[in-house]
Amino acid sequence: MQLFNENIGCIQQIKYVCHIVILLFTYPVIGQWSINQIDSTANIDFDQTLDGVCNDTFTGSGFAPAPSPGNLDSDAWKILGFTAGDLNFGETATENDFARGISEGGKTTGGIYAFIHSPNNHSFGFQPTGGDFTPGQIILRAINNTGMEVNGLNINYQIWTYNNENRSSHIKFSWSLDDVIYHDIPSLDYISPEAESDSAVWNMTYRQGDIDTILPSASSIYLRWTTNDEGGSGSRDELAIDEINLRMLSSGLPIYIQAFKAKWQDKAIKVVWQLLNIDELFAQYHLQHSNNGYQWEDIFVTEAMKDGSGLHDFTYYYSPKSSDEHFFRLKIHSVNSPTIYSRTENLKPESQSSKITIYPNPSDGHIKIDWGPFSQNTNIYLVSNLGQIVLRDIGYRDKTLDLSFLPSGIYFLVIEDRGELECKKIELVR
Fold first, then answer.
1. Which class in CATH covers the domain with range 9-25+354-428?
2. SS3 state of residue 196
3. Do 417 and 389 form a contact (C-beta atoms < 8 A)?
4. How far apart, in Å, are the Cα atoms of 404 and each of 17, 272, 357?
5. Would you list the domain boundaries of the chain?
6. Cis ω on the peptide bond leading into residue 135 (within 30° of 0)?
7. pTM, to two decimals
8. Contacts of 225 (CB under 8 A, 6+ apart)
9. Superfamily of domain 33-250
10. How many Cα atoms are found within 13 Å in the side-chain-facing hemisphere of 179?
11. pLDDT truncated to tens, each residue of the chain (430 aa)?
12. Are 160 and 193 in contact (CB under 8 A)?
């Protein structure tokens, strides 16, 4: 059976090659917080076993890649900022700063604790000191195992403070797709009270926010809490994080979005969508634009129609301000539930359609590749019509390939650059 043909087209070719590349280059999935259901809330409460995150109730006994009861799984957790050193993903630390045990508060020794802020309720706690966790970072790794592309996430969690000292601390939240570049969400910033409480007890503050990004299936996201001194002097309060809830949002169209599409029209971008009116569920619809897929701005906002009149059609013309890529989505503000997003429409600049040139084609075995706006060290794959990768290489701007070792036949050249794929058919004739 011919796996590649003119009727299938380059899209299916690319999908097939992507599958092959994933099989060849994907390593076994290590332990981490696995999110398995789309549009469903996953929870970490530190009171029970959660595969890849915690073995049994967290007892402040440290971290390990194969955790014993009471440990956290270090494949999911990374801790930076203690005098005893840093804990990177997959490492073991079951003593000193990383394993201070269980406590109800009132501690002065720096380190990680399982603080019990209420009866039988354990949490991820830490005691900052002059040398420990000032600054410090807690990084939690989660993987999208829903089998679907995720179009935004919703996170909420509890921050607990035992205010027994005259010094305030801050906890800031950010996220990353590579554990290198992090994006802050300022609305989740927290600052503990500076003045000491006359009778210290555990107090809870709730934080909730949206993470605006596209997360492909089998990809990881890194959730980071950063802490440091904020004000006052002397010793520091005990702090804890608990009840971490993460919801990965579907990139498909919810039933009340009947259509959503963006396309070039002359020098503008025409965005059309059709909404099914459901009386009191929604408050507002936001059409959002981005040049990178994670930093969004509202470009059109309308109040939800609550007249029960069925379908409503919308059209919006967007005038591009730059030659970058363009991303569009609908953000639906719900009255009594988390914010909902449509799938994301992604448009390349009109001037950046495929610029790959291959010649001669057909070829007797030596071909030259010229291509346009691709970055340095672009990956090159040559795939046979049986789906086998027969050549791997890298290139920049232009490349000459010697294919004289291959038999005559049809092949597919795939150029991969920053997650984007371009595919061309090559015919070798001896």
1. mainly beta
2. coil
3. no
4. 22, 50, 20
5. 9-25+354-428, 33-250, 257-350
6. yes
7. 0.60
8. 137, 138, 139, 171, 172, 173, 241
9. Galactose-binding domain-like (2.60.120.260)
10. 17
11. 333 333 334 434 444 444 444 333 333 345 699 999 887 889 999 999 999 999 999 999 999 999 999 999 999 999 999 999 999 999 999 999 999 999 999 999 999 999 999 999 999 999 999 999 999 999 999 999 988 888 788 899 999 999 999 999 999 999 999 999 999 988 899 999 999 998 899 999 999 888 888 888 899 999 999 999 999 999 999 999 999 999 888 755 555 676 788 888 777 888 988 876 654 555 678 899 988 776 789 999 877 665 555 677 888 988 887 767 788 888 877 666 667 777 778 777 754 445 567 888 888 888 888 755 444 456 788 888 777 888 887 765 567 888 888 999 888 888 776 555 677 888 898 7
12. no
Domains 9-25+354-428 and 33-250 share a fold: no
| Residue 91 DSSP SS3 | coil
Strand 102-103, strand 111-118: pairing: parallel
Assign domain 257-350 one CATH number from 3.40.50.300, 2.60.40.2060, 3.90.550.10, 1.10.238.10.
2.60.40.2060
